[in-house]
Every structure is written in C-alpha cells, then in structure tokens.
C-alpha cells in the first residue's frame, strides 16, 4: 500500500485527536433527506482509561451528547453533494441549531466528523508480508508489512476511504489483535480497503470547508450505522447492516469485529415516494405522507377495503378527492422494495456472503420502518432481519433512538474509538545508515 | 432552480461566520463589556479633564436643578406652631420666618430644629413638612421651676433641670417661684423641691435657698432667720426642726440662726437685741422684778 496517498487522512486523524483533547466534537451525518448534527462532550481522561480496542461501557461513558439538531437536507442526492451552496447552508443550519440547543451551553464547536454514504464504495482486500527485523514484532515491522501489500485495483478517479488491517497472522498463527512484542518470523497483515469516487468525496470536503469546520475524518455511513446498531456479538459472528436511507441504501458486512465489506445501492426511500407520486399522479409531499402513514409492503385481505384519500395532481382542492385502496398503494411500493433487496441479495452473493452461516441482518435508516419490510427481507435474504436501534449514548434524547439515527450515533462511537487505519501507522522508512548515529537520528525523529 | 427561499435553506456564509464569531466568549466580552466600559471611561475622562466642558456641564446641570427646585409646587407657603404660648410663638415665627417662600427641597429641617431647641423656652421641638406647603412646628415648652440669682446679681428663670429659660425681671414679678442663690445652685433644683415638700409650713416665710460652698443649703427666712442645713440628710434635719417648731414654736422666736449642721446637736443663735428694746426690757425688769 502506498502510504503517501494517505496524507489527507493522516491530517484528519491529528485533527480528530485535537478535537478530543479540546473535549468538543461534532458529528455530522449528511444524508440525502436529512442532516443530523450531534455535539459530543468528551472526557479525555475517561477515554484513555477505557482502552482502545473495544467499545466498552467506560468508553461510552467518556462521551455525552450535549446538543443535537436534525434539519432537512438540501442539495444532497445519493449521499453526494449536487448543489454546493444549498448543501453548505443545510450543514450550517444543522451545526448552528445543535450549538444553540446545546445544554450546558457551549461556545462553538470546530471539529467535525462526517459520514459519507455515496461515492459507490467498493471493497478490496490486500495482504502484505514481511520478515521481522529482530525476530520480535515492532511497529516498524507492521508498517513494513502494510507497505508491502500490493496496491488494490481501485481504479482511476477513486480514493481510499478506509484501509483497516483486519487479519494479522504471525507464522501461520492467525487472529492476532496486536502482534507488537510477539516473537515470530513472518508477519502477514490482510487489510480491508474501501474505495470511493474521489470527486464526490472532494465535494463533501469542500462543503465542510465552506462551513469553516475542521474536518476530523470521513466515515462510510453504512459502517457507522453498523457500529451503533449491531451488538458486539453480532459484529464478531458476522452481521449485515442494511442502512436504507433517503436515496441510497448502504450495506456493510461485519465479521470478527471488523468491517469486511461496504457497498452502496443507489435506491432508497425517496425512490419509493417518487414511484407513488408518479404512478398515482400525486404531489410529492402528499405521496411522502401517504407512504409514511399508510405504506406497506405485504398485501393483506383487508387492503382492498381500506380506502385512502389520494387527490390527483392539481386536484388537491376538489371537494371529493380521488380515493385509492391500500392494495393499490402496496402494489406501487412493493416492486421498488423488492428490486432494491434483490440488488442487495445479488450483491451479497457476488461477495460470497450470501451463504455465510449465522449471519444476522440488521436494518437501519428511515426507510426500514416501512411495515412488512422484514417479510421481504426474510424471503429474499433467507434470514429474519431486525430493526437496529442505535446504542444509547449518554445524553442522547429519546427522540434520537430511532433506526434513522444509527449512522449519526455510529459516527460518535467511531470518534471515541476509531478503528486502526493504515494512516495510524508510521510510514516505513528505508534505514539510512546502520550504526549508532543513524539510530539516534531515527530516535530523535520519532520523538519529535 | 430553488423552490424554497434562501433563508429557510440555511444561513449564508457571512451570517454563519458572524454567528460563530459571536459565539466566542472573548469576543462577546470585548464587545459587550470591555469596549463600552472603556468608551464610557474615556468620555468621562474627557469631560473631567477639559475645564471649559466640565464647567459648562456643571452650569447646565445646576440651572436645571435650580429650575426644578424653584417650581411653585415645592414652595413652603405657611408655618403652623403647636404647643407654644403666644409669646414663644412669636419668637418661633421670627426664627423660621426666612423659610416661608423658600423651596421645600432646600428645607433643612434638622438645622431648624436645632435652632429652635437652642431657644431657652423650648424643651424639644419636632418639625414636619406635609409636602403641600405647610411646615408644622410642634414644641414642648420648658416649665419654670425656680429663680436663680447668679454671682453677678442678675435673676434668671430656670426649669427643673437647671436650664436657664429666660432672664427674670424683678423678684416680685415671679412670687410663686423659689429663689436660689449661689454657685452650683441651678443643678440642684430637685433638692430644693424636696426641701419644700419636707417643710410646707415654712414656705410662706421663705426668702431664698442659698447654696454655700457648692456643698450645702442655707434657708433664709424673713426677719433675718437663717436655717443652716447639713450636707447630707438635709430633709431629715429640716423635718426635725419642723417638729421642734410644732412643739415649741421655734421659728416664731427671735432667732438669728438655727444651725442644724450637726443633726444630733442643733444650735440656736439669738438675734442681736435692739438697743432701745433692751433698755425698755431692763426698765420693765427693774419695776416688776426678775420673775416676770
């Protein structure tokens, strides 16, 4: 892997630790239909006492949500910025709203961690091997192993979003979490790389820059949703988190506490609304409302008798509005949902996860609240899904515990215990001069 | 094309920057506390340090104050005196005379009260201003208790605490008041009142109480009789003398001095005989013999 390409991530990491040192951090979940901003108060002392490998209760106690704000998202589609000014205004509104709602009052928050749900994420795996220098594994050996891994074929115009070491083995001893100090000859590290389109990512960073915020990191939205919605055991034994948002559906697969796959399907709840509005000739806002109130996926016998007021486009004020049966509504909604989950299914089969045993399916995102969705998922994916609600953080209002806030809360958890990424390790450096002088020079460099 | 107004879409970049800048505590403090305080202090210093400006401001303020003070609503229109005899009332009206027509805002009630109380006739005074132009003076007069002849021979009326009320005319103008003579006498008005109470029958004959050596009393009666009282137990001694008088008509006798200074040994001194009277007595003795 090429360490030099990760300079931007390295800079964001140092800003993240700076924000944690200051004790104030905002997380921004920029979705296609809503933008959620949470402001976290972080107690650094507790954070260090909590350790760094697992999301433990002490770790969660280190952070408290002091303010939150959710605003309608404008200028964002499929998780990507399509109107820079409108998107920046929405983000500013969310940040100002959260700052104003903050209790206890805070001056302002400068550091922000952002989710990214678009950019057609693609997962790669790459394995690097190295011989240990001294027989005992050091940080340099890990860096060398990571550096020796071949560059995955991410393609032109794409950029690495995550690069996480997921499998570390030492002389065929696999499943290590931290090999430093262990004795062995051959160290091999398998990394999971998530690559996204570079241009939407750059647009997102520009959008944050226009809000005068210090970007502390960009996290894949389905990954963040999985972090908060999956319980620890699910992450270990294997789980699929399907984050069904406004205009895209994210997919993240966890195994042995690591993200092993992140995908995006470019359909979401707003497409369903569009189908209703187009298919039944209704106003968009009205279609959204009918979807939320009467929507469903599974037809029942009572559906044909349940009539819903659905005025035709342009006839909203007519004395007798047109009525449709719920069966008709379901007939419009169901094909889109089925199509979406067939795509999920085929994507999972492509990845070879379709046959993974003991793998639970967790639905998050606002669109997953459609009644009957679980039946479709059960039929198509062969597993009964559950609705994943975000883990409770201290200070989180009860209004923010729905599945649509899983990504925002997951971002907060990522901020507390970020997974090791490639850019958390030292850049492997060719050893210049052997001998004491070179060693001292190297020591001085690493110390400062 | 945007279907919503820009305002509802969110704040512009400039508005956002201003809001976030304002969110910083130090900037808020500077703008709201330090800058105004400094500006005020500088303006104040400019006024104080420039004589012309300061004098003009002071004159202007004084003019405004004067106009307010001189308004007819604040004038004192009348003075009412309560509890004073007509003579004293005239004196009081003369004292507070300048107050009439003055502004009540300039009224120095305490000073007036002290001025009134410095008059001998006034024991205490209370002044009220009712807010509608009437100044009420309520005084308690001093009650004359005795006359006092000072070492220079002038007569004064004093009250029971020994305070001089006024100068007295001739003795005959105050026949009801006892006369006291001698230094330190005015402080002892209570004592002579007790003595008078001890010997009420003697009072019509009494001419004066004479304080001797600022120590003890002499009672001077008519016909040149002097009763010398002891320093302590004067009332008891006088009461004893009165008992003698009731038994033996002591005071009707022709005595010059009744000396009670030693209570257990009262002494009498006869009045010096008139030459003519002595001669007549001798002649009567010669004619009638010793036994008459």
From TrEMBL, chain A:
SMART domains: FtsA (SM00842). Its main location: membrane. It is a peripheral membrane protein. Residues 25-229 form the SHS2 domain. Coiled coil: none annotated. Keywords: Cell cycle, Cell division, Cell membrane, Membrane. Pfam families: FtsA, SHS2_FTSA. It is found in: Cell membrane. The keyword Transport does not apply. InterPro entries: ATPase_NBD, Cell_div_FtsA, FtsA/MreB, SHS2_FtsA. GO terms for biological process: cell division. SUPFAM superfamilies: Actin-like ATPase domain. Belongs to the FtsA/MreB family. Self-interacts. Interacts with FtsZ. Cell division protein that is involved in the assembly of the Z ring. May serve as a membrane anchor for the Z ring. This is Cell division protein FtsA. It comes from Paralimibaculum aggregatum.
TrEMBL record, chain B:
The keyword Cell cycle applies. It is found in: Cell inner membrane; Membrane. The chain crosses the membrane at residues 26-48. It is a single-pass type II membrane protein. InterPro entries: Cell_div_FtsQ/DivIB_C (IPR005548), FtsQ (IPR026579), FtsQ_C_sf (IPR045335), POTRA (IPR034746). Keywords: Cell cycle, Cell division, Cell inner membrane, Cell membrane, Membrane, Transmembrane, Transmembrane helix. The keyword Cell inner membrane applies. One of its GO terms (biological process) is cell division. Residues 74-142 form the POTRA domain. Belongs to the FtsQ/DivIB family. FtsQ subfamily. PANTHER family: CELL DIVISION PROTEIN FTSQ. Essential cell division protein. This is Cell division protein FtsQ. The gene is ftsQ.
């Amino acid at each position: 892997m090429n360490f030099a390409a990760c300079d931007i991530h390295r800079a964001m990491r140092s800003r993240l630790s700076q924000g944690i040192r200051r004790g104030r951090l905002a997380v921004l979940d920029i979705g296609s239909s809503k933008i959620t901003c949470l402001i976290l108060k972080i107690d650094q002392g507790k954070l260090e006492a909590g350790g760094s490998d697992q999301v433990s209760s002490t770790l969660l106690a280190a952070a408290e949500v002091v303010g939150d704000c959710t605003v309608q998202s404008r200028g964002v589609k499929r998780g990507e910025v399509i109107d820079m000014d409108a998107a920046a205004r929405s983000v500013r509104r969310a940040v100002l709203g959260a700052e104003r709602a903050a209790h206890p009052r805070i001056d302002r928050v400068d550091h922000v961690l952002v989710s990214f749900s678009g950019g057609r994420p693609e997962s790669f795996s790459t394995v690097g091997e190295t011989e240990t220098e001294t027989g005992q594994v050091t940080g340099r050996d890990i860096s060398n192993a990571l550096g020796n891994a071949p560059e995955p074929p991410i393609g032109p115009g794409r950029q690495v979003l995550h690069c996480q070491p997921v499998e570390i083995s030492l002389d065929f001893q696999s499943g290590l979490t931290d090999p430093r100090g262990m004795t062995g000859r051959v160290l091999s590290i398998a990394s999971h790389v998530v690559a996204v389109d570079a241009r939407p990512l750059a647009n997102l960073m520009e959008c944050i820059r226009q809000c005068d915020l210090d970007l502390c990191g960009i996290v894949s939205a389905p990954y963040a949703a999985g972090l908060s919605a999956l319980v620890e055991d699910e992450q270990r034994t294997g789980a699929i988190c399907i984050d069904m948002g406004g205009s895209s559906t994210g997919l993240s697969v966890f195994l042995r506490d690591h993200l092993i796959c992140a995908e995006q399907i470019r359909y979401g709840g707003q497409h369903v609304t569009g189908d209703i509005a187009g298919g039944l000739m209704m106003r968009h806002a009205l279609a959204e409302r009918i979807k939320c109130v009467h929507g469903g996926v599974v037809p029942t016998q009572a559906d044909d008798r349940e009539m819903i007021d659905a005025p035709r486009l342009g006839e909203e004020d007519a004395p007798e509005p047109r009525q449709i049966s719920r069966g008709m509504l379901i007939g419009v909604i169901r094909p889109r949902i089925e199509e979406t989950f067939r795509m999920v299914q085929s994507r999972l089969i492509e990845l070879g996860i379709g046959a993974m045993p003991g793998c639970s399916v967790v639905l998050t995102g606002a669109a997953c609240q459609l009644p009957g969705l679980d039946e479709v998922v059960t039929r198509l994916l062969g597993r009964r899904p559950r609705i994943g609600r975000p883990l409770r953080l201290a200070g989180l209002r009860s209004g923010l515990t729905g599945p649509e806030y899983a990504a925002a809360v997951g971002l907060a958890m990522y901020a507390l215990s970020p997974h090791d990424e490639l850019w958390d390790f030292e850049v492997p450096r060719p050893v210049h001069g052997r001998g004491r002088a070179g060693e001292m020079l190297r020591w001085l460099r690493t110390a400062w | 094309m945007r279907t919503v107004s820009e305002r509802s879409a969110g704040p512009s970049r400039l508005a956002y920057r201003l809001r976030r800048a304002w969110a910083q505590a130090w900037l808020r403090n500077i703008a709201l506390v330090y800058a105004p305080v400094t500006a005020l202090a500088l303006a104040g210093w400019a006024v104080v340090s420039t004589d012309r400006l300061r004098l003009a401001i002071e004159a202007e303020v004084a003019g405004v104050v004067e106009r307010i003070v001189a308004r007819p609503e604040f004038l004192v229109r009348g003075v009412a005196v309560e509890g004073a005899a007509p003579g004293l009332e005239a004196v009081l009206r003369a004292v507070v005379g300048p107050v009439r027509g003055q502004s009540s805002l300039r009224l120095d009630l305490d000073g007036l009260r002290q001025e009134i109380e410095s008059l001998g006739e006034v024991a205490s005074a209370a002044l009220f201003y009712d807010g509608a132009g009437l100044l009420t003076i309520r005084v308690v007069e001093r009650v004359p208790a005795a006359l006092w002849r000072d070492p220079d021979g002038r007569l004064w009326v004093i009250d029971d605490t020994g305070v001089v009320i006024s100068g007295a005319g001739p003795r005959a103008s105050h026949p009801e008041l006892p006369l006291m003579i001698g230094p330190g006498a005015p402080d002892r008005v209570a004592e002579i009142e007790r003595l008078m109470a001890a010997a009420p029958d003697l009072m019509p004959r009494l001419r004066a109480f004479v304080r001797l050596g600022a120590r003890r009393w002499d009672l001077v009666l008519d016909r040149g009789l002097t009763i010398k009282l002891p320093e302590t137990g004067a009332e008891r001694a006088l009461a004893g003398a009165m008992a003698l008088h009731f038994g033996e008509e002591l005071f009707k006798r022709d005595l010059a001095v009744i000396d009670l200074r030693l209570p257990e040994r009262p002494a009498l001194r006869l009045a010096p005989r008139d030459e003519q009277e002595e001669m007549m007595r001798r002649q009567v003795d010669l004619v009638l013999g010793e036994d008459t």
